[in-house]
Amino acid sequence: MSKVKIGIIGGSGLNKPGILEGGTEKVVQTPFGPPSDVLIEGQISGVDCVLLARHGREHTINPSSINYRANIWALKDVGCTHVIVSSATGSLQEDIKPGDLVIVDSFIDRTFKRENTFYDGSPNSPFKDVVHMPMEPAFCSKTRSLLLETARDLGLPVHEGGSVVTIEGPRFSSKAESNVFRLQGASLVNMTLVPEVCLAREAGLLYAAVAMATDYDCWRCGVVNVVEVLKNLRANAKKVEKLFLAVIPKIAEQNWDNELKCMKDMLKYSNQTQISKLSDAELEVL
Ligand SMILES: CSC[C@H]1O[C@H](OP(=O)(O)O)[C@H](O)[C@@H]1O
Ligand SMILES: Nc1ncnc2[nH]cnc12
């Protein structure tokens, strides 16, 4: 049974190095440049964990400028098997109230200026192959189930699933955009889930996200503003913290060998450069 190590990416307002016992800072370099900040390695209930502030510890990096590739690479490089993340989101549905948590199950990508793959063939990329990864299920189902069960046990207001539209930002959506996302059936809107979730898949990491609704996007509330978002986050951040503290020992009790093997296989079956070289007979037995 593989030992787990859990990466935690703290989003807006949810970046508390204090949740780790014996936290030590580690500077990591990656082939894609530096991650958003130092990694903080430590333990939660005896389980190895690594904390990374998505926007930097002083919140100085905007969503488009986050080096998502470096962040995910760094967590993989220090041996993480799992990544659990928090994200502040606008609600697109009446029944998802500010303060509620959603264990996200899919996404709609409305970003347009981000590096979204390790396999880009660029001179500094260690990967030259062309890879087309599946994104269903986009998030690790078993980790999601544990998050959901734990949130319910803790009595937190939680929704079992929902899809997030990730916009490029840094501006919020217009009312027309917000209404289009609702017509598309999306539950939430944020600025950071993509390409983080996609890169985690390429890196073979078991990734799950807890979205915290901080506002009803402008379709309902008229104007979204950062003051309201942050007030809400401060009032509700404890919920995500409690959830992460409680779920981590549960994750560590499970055997993840199957899930980790599935991730490796998924990469193997997605590498068109390598698959193209196979004969018909080899392809048949793949
Ligand atoms: C302060 S609202 C905009 C900001 O909040 C979210 O950040 P994160 O996902 O890191 O919690 C959202 O995606 C935007 O980046
Ligand atoms: N309404 C909203 N739109 C985009 N990102 C957000 N993060 C928090 N609220 C948001």
UniProtKB/TrEMBL annotation:
Lineage: superkingdom: Eukaryota
InterPro entries, sorted:
MTAP, Nucleoside_phosphorylase_d, Nucleoside_phosphorylase_sf, Purine_phosphorylase-2_CS
Its cellular-component GO annotations read:
cytosol; nucleus
The family annotation for this protein states: Belongs to the PNP/MTAP phosphorylase family. MTAP subfamily.
Q: What is this protein called?
A: S-methyl-5'-thioadenosine phosphorylase
**Which residue numbers mark the site Important for substrate specificity?**
173, 226
| Matching Pfam families | PNP_UDP_1
What Enzyme Commission number(s) apply to this enzyme?
2.4.2.28
GO terms (BP aspect):
L-methionine salvage from methylthioadenosine; purine ribonucleoside salvage
UniProt GO molecular function: S-methyl-5-thioadenosine phosphorylase activity
Which residues are noted in the entry as substrate-binding?
191, 215-217
The subunit structure is: Homotrimer.
Give the catalytic activity. Answer: S-methyl-5'-thioadenosine + phosphate = 5-(methylsulfanyl)-alpha-D-ribose 1-phosphate + adenine
TM spans (from-to): none
